[in-house]
Design brief:
This is ARM repeat superfamily protein. It comes from Eucalyptus globulus (Tasmanian blue gum). InterPro entries: ARM-like, ARM-type_fold, PSMD5. The protein is an all-alpha fold. The chain is built from 26 helices and no strands. The model has no long low-confidence stretch (mean pLDDT about 90).
Length: about 400
């Protein structure tokens, strides 16, 4: 251990990285029947040295340090080392973040995300220690675009952790993300990332059991505001916004929320799905429409509540009336007649929408659509073949169960 101590403080970044990996190896291979590895770490004051490597090392050293600290947090007694009871401890992550550079703070936040993934109990300790407020502070202070973007990327990772939803809803992070989305003065890449984080968070069914609808509506309203803005959105932001709406539409309650109100937010998705002015925008919208209609669900035939279903039908008929095609079947045919990638995206909403009698009638009334989805040679890729077959199968199945 004296050699490890020296290694963790070495001038050479390679040596420091190797010393961090040595600590990880010690912790991973410790035999609890013999001398505790955690006790060795404590006795030789290793943890503060690992923290120094985290905030003052290069990228490889910081990553190796995080791995060692995560392993320590997974062990009995190790959690108490990583999360000291007293807020005044020098090794408390809040105190560490307050004393280091902006890059150092980003590494501290990256460590918190890694620790958050260990278990729901460790995530609860992080919440109780008020460490999530470090994310709030960095997001609120958007003076440095690069730092803010780095923090948003970390938050994007965090919302993917299965137990994150319940804990993140107790913070002010969602309101802060909505503020970023609504702020036209910020860089579009920040708004785009904030939208994608919200989309991931609101794509989960349990989200709507953990929070009140008004909190969710704040985010949805912010996204709607960006798409309704007279200021033109750049291509990337527009696609990110439509993708975020598609993520929200993955959950039944999310889809119903997007289809509610006098001016439903889902109108942006439907109109863009059949607008050939921007290829990337149309692709994002078609996939989002597929999610809203239930294509991502296991049986591809999720039916929403009555008002949401009626709004969805009216939006598609309205989109048709605003185009030269005039009827929905003309819109769908137009999509399927485009290049392979657009056609692939078009199979998704059709596969789900044919669960509705009005759409099934529209599809089956257009011989050209039936010819495309039953043509075994039109697709040349595996994913395209599977999408076409799934669409064909849904039409065939539902046409036999619907009344004439």
């Amino acid at each position: 251990m004296p050699f490890v101590q020296v290694g963790l403080q070495a001038a050479s970044q390679e040596v420091r990285c190797l010393a961090c990996k040595t600590v990880s190896c010690l912790l991973e291979n410790s035999d609890e029947k013999s001398l505790s590895a955690v006790k060795i770490v404590i006795d030789y004051n290793i943890y503060p040295l690992l923290l120094d490597c985290l905030v003052n090392g290069n990228e490889e050293v910081a990553a190796a340090s995080m791995d060692a600290i995560k392993t320590l947090a997974c062990l009995q007694r190790g959690t108490n080392v990583v999360f000291p009871a007293s807020d005044s401890e020098v090794t408390h992550l809040r105190n560490l973040a307050a004393q280091c550079s902006s890059l150092g703070r980003v590494w501290v936040l990256a460590l918190i995300v890694k620790l958050f993934s260990v278990s729901s109990s460790v995530a609860s300790i992080i919440y109780s220690s008020n460490l999530l407020s470090l994310f709030e502070a960095e997001i609120s202070d958007s003076q440095d675009t690069l730092v803010t973007l780095s923090v948003l990327e970390l938050l994007y990772e965090m919302v993917e952790i299965w137990h994150a939803t319940e804990i993140l809803w107790r913070t002010a992070l969602l309101q802060l993300l909505a503020s970023i989305i609504s702020n036209a003065l910020l860089e579009s890449i920040l708004r785009s990332r904030a939208m994608m984080i919200c989309g991931r968070l609101l794509s989960k069914e349990d989200t709507y059991m953990l929070t009140d609808e008004s909190s969710v509506r704040v985010v949805v309203s912010a996204i709607d505001g960006r798409l309704s803005s007279s200021e033109s959105l750049d291509t990337d932001e527009c696609e990110a916004t439509l993708e975020a709406l598609g993520q929200i539409g993955l959950s039944t309650q999310g889809a119903e929320l997007l289809l509610s109100s006098t001016y439903p937010v889902a109108r942006h998705v439907v109109y863009a799905a059949f607008d050939r002015q921007g290829r990337g925008k149309q692709l994002a919208a078609l996939h989002a429409l597929g999610n809203l209609a239930g294509d991502a669900q296991s049986d591809n035939s999720v039916i929403l509540n009555g008002s949401a279903e009626e709004t969805l039908r009216l939006l598609i008929y309205e989109a048709a009336s605003r185009s030269p095609k005039l009827i929905p079947s003309g819109l769908f045919l137009s999509v399927l007649q485009q290049e392979a990638e657009t056609r692939l995206a078009g199979y998704r909403p059709i596969t789900a929408l044919v669960a509705r009698p009005w759409c099934l009638m529209e599809i089956c009334s257009k011989e050209e659509i039936v010819d495309i989805v039953t043509d075994p040679s039109i697709e040349t890729t595996k994913i395209g073949m599977e999408a076409r077959y799934g669409c064909c199968q849904a039409i065939h199945k539902l046409s036999h169960v619907q009344p004439n």
